[in-house]
Amino acid sequence: MSTTSTKCVNLLLPSIVLCTTLHGVAQDDYALFRISIRESTGGLGFGINELGHVAGKQSVFGGSSPSYWWLEDGILLGTFGGPWGEAADVNNRGVIVGSASIVSPYPFDHPFVWYDGAMLDLGTLGGDQGWAYAVNNRNQVVGRSQYGDPWDVQAHGYVWHDGVMTELPLIAGCCSSADDINDQGVIVGRTTFNEDNLYSAAVIWYNQRVYQIGPDNFNSRAYAINEHMDVVGWSDEGYRRHAFLWSDNHMLNIDTHPEMEGSWAEDINNLGQVVGALDESEFSWITFGFLWQADTGMTLLNDFIPPKSYFKSLGSGQGINDFGQITGDGYYDEEQVRQYGYLLSPVYPTFMLDQPTPGTAGEVNTITARNLTPGTKVYFIYGMGGGGSIIPRCEIVEAALQIDDPVIAGTAVADAAGVATLVGKVPSKWAGQEVLIQGLVSSECDISNLVVVKFE
């Protein structure tokens, strides 16, 4: 059964509180936006906040740059002079963390915090390299840092706050990584747990104490934690790597695609929705993003791509917010070569749009919208490609069109029965073409279902 509730997010900025309706079941309808920033040739999204703003990276000539994208716009954050970098997370204040390379003596990575146009080098635990992976809404940052020889892979997890980087304790052995932190200051990641360093286990840190949640004698890693203390990641216990959900001191294998080679979970929101990726096979680089929910199991993100989209495949889900918006890496080809970041945003049609009749190009056609409030003005929108478009004066978490480059075909007003009808001649050149049509009530930020018609 579908359940709904109202969510108001305090964005920790005095003037911004965002409210909308949360839907308690898996959504089938999504708008899909390409994350693209000028001067870039591709990229991907890593972290997403409650505004739908995305931290990620963009490919540029000679390397990559951390990026920040919002509502069909964005900026490249730059590096510390080196050739590459990436932004891993963004909080509700717009504080971004990640890593960026320096100039000399080698292009080593340094963790950074970016806010309001300024990038701060967080330093390291004594070594030459470090990385920042997550930031909470209290501006606490976690990641990992080397503490010795830059060519030594050993590194320790840390938490950084108010200019101080604090090393996190190990269970045993050499290495650890802090991968996420919630607003209560609880950290998750992994650490080696024996002196021979053969295995590392998923762990939780709280008040500078470390607790193992992963199994002994198998590798595991925790990637994300929500405010309910639910943890997700991966474990290779058994026969292959699989995504897990750790909740109430119990680790659950959530991989429901046994025909795939393996899986891992990247993020979880406060509704318990999990995103991650599945490996196609041991000998292929191709992956498939997934959304997991307790009532539906794993659903491939490819199932949510709108009709006639430029995107052919969504390779991973890297981040998900409480409005169910997802970011990750997508591809314009099934071979997964042309990589772009994306935002997949759920939409909730509130009225019905019929197929146009008679559905013949070069003739007068009629298209009807139903279940409207009498007197409502409806815009009939069309386009040739599926994707996503922002509706002016509407929050993206409320509604978005599922059409790229939308065009207004005309308007109509709903009669006393709640029916609005548009009559017009369809161009002859549309014969044999598929056209996408959607209704919009802009005054209420309401949309219809998406109609795909192939005119004869």
What can you see in these coordinates?
- The structure is a single chain.
- This protein is mainly β and 456 residues long.
- It folds into two domains: 4-346, 6 Propeller (Neuraminidase), CATH 2.120.10; 352-454, Sandwich (Immunoglobulin-like).
- It is built from no helices and 39 strands.
- The chain has strands spanning 4-13, 16-23, 30-35, 43-48, 54-60, 63-70, 73-76, 81-90, 96-102, 109-115, 118-121, 130-135, 141-146, 155-161, 164-167, 176-181, 187-192, 200-206, 209-212, 220-225, 231-235, 242-247, 250-253, 262-268, 274-279, 287-293, 297-300, 313-320, 326-331, 339-346, 352-353, 364-370, 377-383, 385-389, 401-404, 407-413, 420-425, 434-441, 446-454.
- The strands form eleven sheets. Strands 3-30-29-28 form a four-stranded antiparallel β-sheet, with no helix packed on it.
- It is elongated and about 75 Å long.
Q: Which helices and strands, and how do they pair?
A:
Blueprint: E1 4-13, E2 16-23, E3 30-35, E4 43-48, E5 54-60, E6 63-70, E7 73-76, E8 81-90, E9 96-102, E10 109-115, E11 118-121, E12 130-135, E13 141-146, E14 155-161, E15 164-167, E16 176-181, E17 187-192, E18 200-206, E19 209-212, E20 220-225, E21 231-235, E22 242-247, E23 250-253, E24 262-268, E25 274-279, E26 287-293, E27 297-300, E28 313-320, E29 326-331, E30 339-346, E31 352-353, E32 364-370, E33 377-383, E34 385-389, E35 401-404, E36 407-413, E37 420-425, E38 434-441, E39 446-454
Antiparallel strand pairs: 1-2, 3-30, 4-5, 5-6, 6-7, 8-9, 9-10, 10-11, 12-13, 13-14, 14-15, 16-17, 17-18, 18-19, 20-21, 21-22, 22-23, 24-25, 25-26, 26-27, 28-29, 29-30, 31-32, 32-37, 33-36, 33-38, 34-35, 38-39
